[in-house]
Structure formats: C-alpha cells, structure tokens
C-alpha cells in the first residue's frame, strides 16, 4: 500500500512489519544483514566485535568477517560503501548533512584498521543539489566547502542548494581515497526508483497533510 508500495525495508516508518520482513527476505544474504539504529550521528561500529550488543545506534559500520553485511538505510541522505583492494574489509556509511558535518566519514576511516589509499568508494543514491534546499546554518557548517553551495535567488530568505555528493567526494579525496564511483542518482527526482523523504514532505504539504510517510532503500556490502 502507498506510500510503502515498493520494497520498503525500514521497520521504523509505519509500514506493516510483516510486509517489511518479507521485503528484507528478498535481499541476497538477508539472514546476515545487521540493521543499525541510525540517528544522524558520526558513530562507526565494528560489526565483527559489536554485532551482538543490544544497542546498535550508529551511522556507519565495518567488517572483516565473510558474509556479515554492512548496510545503511536512506531516503535522501547519501549512502557510501567502502572496501579495500585486498578484499579484507568493507564498510557502509550513512552520510546526511549532519553526519558529513560531524565527521562520519573521517570516523569510519579512523576506526577501520586499513589505510585509506587502497580503499574504493561508491556513493549511492541521494538527493541531488537541484532539489536539496537548506538554510544558512548548513552552509556555515561547511565553511570549507563553499563550492558545493549555490544561492537560491528565487527565495526571499537566505536559502541554498547543497551538493552532498561533492562534499563527500572532497572529504574522501582529502583523506586519501582516490577511487570514488557513483553519485549520478537523485532520490527526489527519480521517483520511479527511490523513496525520498523530502519529496514526500513536499507532497504532504501540498495536500495539507500533517504526516509525510515514505519508505527507505538499503545500500549494502559484504565479503563473499
């Protein structure tokens, strides 16, 4: 049923739990997924060590154990998947603007016992710059990334459009990651492919609805 009619995999958005479980079971290697409690933090955990702890509140995780799946859920925020060239470590990062500003990428690389230089990164589907309007407080949080912002000249307030892909890429390059892929999607615009919280919010406002409900997509990586 709308708005969860396309393989929503999140249990926290008001969807039928039984349907969500069936959706999750369609994922490859579904029995080894580890579902984080994402809070827009900068916390990264080691699944090989912390997978059995009760509270899995984190927005990034890594593993060196085969078949153990690192996964993050998104509906506009940027998912980043990492692996080293030796194929011994993988990681998944949930990088919304708050996480990016507070160092979730930096904390993930600091936690992983591997050098940044041989890492490969893939940036999954996120909201594109043309549709991600933010206030001045977000621009101030990224003082060193001014090129990722363009002023919304059609607004009578101080509003900007921000490019999460560009900020994440600049951060990863500064950390020594040079093999970076992806970044060509837009969750807001490509409604036939992705859930978008911002798109749902705009649609709810147009209908004078108090609730904006939408599902989540998952980006995942594991060692085979």
Count of discrete structural domains: 1
Q: Number of helical runs?
A: 7
How would you sum up the major sheet? Answer: 6 strands, mixed
What's the CATH topology name? CNF1/YfiH-like putative cysteine hydrolases
> What is the radius of gyration computed over CA atoms, rounded to a whole number of angstroms?
17 Å
Instruction: Count every beta strand, where a strand is a DSSP E run of 2 or more residues.
Output: 12
CATH architecture: 4-Layer Sandwich
**Helix content range of the residues, please?**
10-25%
Helices and strands: which structural class?
alpha/beta
How would you describe the shape?
A: globular
Element string (H = helix, E = strand):
HEEHEEEEHHEEHEEHEHE
* CATH classification, class level: Alpha Beta
Tell me the distance between the termini.
34 Å
> How much strand content do the residues show?
15-25%
Strand sequence of the main sheet, in spatial order? Answer: 2-3-6-5-7-11
- List low-pLDDT spans: none
Q: What's the CATH H-level superfamily name?
A: CNF1/YfiH-like putative cysteine hydrolases
């Amino acid at each position: 049923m709308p708005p969860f009619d396309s393989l929503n995999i999140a249990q926290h958005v008001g969807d039928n739990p039984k349907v969500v479980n069936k959706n999750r079971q369609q994922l490859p290697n579904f029995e080894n997924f580890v579902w984080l409690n994402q809070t827009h933090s900068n916390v990264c955990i080691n699944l090989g060590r912390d997978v059995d702890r009760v509270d899995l509140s984190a927005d990034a995780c890594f593993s060196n154990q085969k078949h153990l799946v690192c996964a993050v859920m998104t509906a506009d925020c940027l998912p980043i998947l990492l692996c080293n060239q030796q194929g011994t470590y993988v990681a998944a990062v949930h990088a919304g603007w708050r996480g990016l500003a507070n160092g979730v990428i930096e904390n993930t690389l600091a936690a992983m016992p591997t050098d940044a230089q041989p890492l490969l990164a893939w940036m999954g589907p996120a909201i594109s710059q043309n549709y991600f309007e933010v206030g001045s407080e977000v621009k101030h949080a990224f003082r060193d990334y001014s090129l990722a912002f363009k002023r919304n000249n059609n607004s009578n307030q101080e509003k900007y459009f921000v490019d999460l892909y560009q900020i994440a890429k600049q951060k990863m390059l500064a950390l020594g990651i040079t093999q970076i892929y992806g970044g060509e999607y837009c969750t807001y615009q490509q409604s036939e492919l992705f859930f978008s919280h911002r798109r749902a919010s705009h649609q709810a406002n147009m209908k004078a609805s108090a609730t904006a409900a939408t599902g989540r997509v998952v980006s995942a990586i594991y060692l085979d």
